Amino acid sequence: MTVDEIRQIIEKLHLRVPKDFKKMSIPQLSNELRGIMEFERQTFQKIEDLEKKGIQQDMIKYAKIICKNTIQREITEIQEIYLKKIDNEYLNSN
Prior knowledge:
The protein has three helices and no strands. By secondary structure, it is mainly α.
């Protein structure tokens, strides 16, 4: 049963709908960044809870790697676009 829970966590990560961050405003990007960071926190909490239940260490390590890589990729994309928009807005206002 707990292996199925790991699979569900990984599926949830892969089923995240890609968004067009370039079309978003700075406040929208800020909200997206907060949202993905909260999603990351919750996901790692679920994985840690399963780890405490004694799930196979290989499955736990795999889930952590998938989670870290998938979420970090999205966070990095949001941050890059966010910072470019802030730079453009700041440079254009001067």
